[in-house]
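Whether sequence alone determines local backbone shape is best considered at the level of individual chains. We regard such an encoding as a compact summary of how the chain folds. The sequence in question and its structure tokens are set out directly beneath this paragraph.
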Amino acid sequence: METRGWLIGAAEPGHGSLGLEVLATLAVAAFVALLAQRLRLAAAPAFLLAGVAAGPSVLGIVSSSENLTEIGHVATMILLFGIGLELRIDRSTKWGEGVRLSAAGAISCVLCTLAGWPIAMLFGLSGGAALAMSMAMAISSTAIVLRTLSLRRELRRPHGRASLVVLVVQDLAALVMLAILPLLSPREGSTFGEMAAGAALSVGGVALLVVLGKLFAGRILREAARGPEGPQLMTIVGVVMAVGAGLATQRLGLSAELGAFIAGFLLADTPFRHQIAGAVAPLRDVLLAVFFTSVGMAVDPRLALEYWWVILLATVLVAVVKIVMIAGPLWAFGSSAPTAVQSGLSLAHGGEFSLVVLSAAAALNVVAPTTFALGVTVIVVSLTATPLMMSWGRTLAPRTTGWPAAPWVRRRVGASGDGDGRTDHVIIAGFGPVGRALAEQLDTDGVPFVIIDLNPDTVVRQEKRGRRAVYGDATNAEVLESAGIHGAAALALTIPDDDAAVRACSVAIRLAPTIYIVARLNSLGQGNLARSSGAREVIVEEITAARYVRDAVMKELASRKPA
């Protein structure tokens, strides 16, 4: 008896109204997010489970996940564009530390692939299909791990820095994997030389895209940022670059998601990344819900029940292999045992790029439809278990404190430090006359500070002077976090916009409840709002001006009185 589509109406499977499909998906995602928040559970795994329940194979709230294919592609592109924007090694990661962590990440990715290849063949897969599956499983979820570490304020801690670098390397390795996949799918009538030429063309096209992005992306964004509508225009230009790069890589025979990721990764090196990331964040969060929910809809519970032991065994093997092959190289390259163990447990799952690689392999007929469906189910199960694995990491890591460091790098471990990156600096939001005066005094006193300003030329000039400057709006949480709001001693709001200053107070207090905020406002009413929003000290220009005017007039009148 057909039970699909009872909410969407009498539409045939695969032909329902796209608007209703998206509405139903968002409604399910919103309900699950509220429930997960009440139960204090991670949202992403809940979205996956909701997708399974709402999909055509169970309740049929959405008649067919095929109708969400295009919206899913857009969601994945924006998601990976946002991930690319975030994948820039933080300045708290020193150069030497970054090199050794990158080396450990590259080796761990290769080891995970090589270890998973024969294991996948033991499940009956051909050599090409097993290699594609092992490559997909070697990648972890950047979105879930970074979000969890950020919420727990652990990104600057040793395991946070190690996890971030390994994730960067994994996502870059996915580019190589997507280029390799066509070689695993010999097409009828195609010689090895023709396939190699096609792969070389794709790699060359991606290289050209990277070069063009390096040459022109920053200049275009700087020009967009000059006008009064700079932040909004810059966000539009950034999204256009993401979609354009996606279409370019699609024309090269690769995935559009790959191009969007490359665009974000290129923009991550510009001073505008924080503003764009913050502006894209709300859209990214919505599409993240659509993405994970639609992925859950691709799971067929009947197939999962039939092959439950295969899925369970594969999920456990993926976790074990990744824990060993990630923690081992990290330890060997100088990380402490607690850092290595906690990082390994945090990354012991599949990720967004795993789904992209598997989808590309299925499109090239490298893996069969059933294999693809089981692979997606394994990724969904492992992602669902990610919060639990990260909790285990926080519990088990302290127990390994007494374990010895790698003897060949023992000295470097002590030098790397395990600090949390706090600097007790001052953030100056707005670099007009007031901000410049404060900066000069802080320079004189040797107090570190970070500048936030919406003038791109100001940001460039200050960076040339060796000062830390961030382009963006101080009301943007991403911008404040990039300026180090969590480790700042004080925030000086010297921006001339009263409404923006009040909003910045609220955002800053939400991110760092104990930070000292001093705000400059033009009117008494806005000054009171700023104080109620968290400002500890408020300087109201109209009151200051009134005092100066009063004192000047009274001084003049006093001078005219007879002696």
User: Anything to note?
Assistant: The mean pLDDT is 79. The chain has 24 helices and six strands. Residues 192-224 form the longest helix (33 residues).
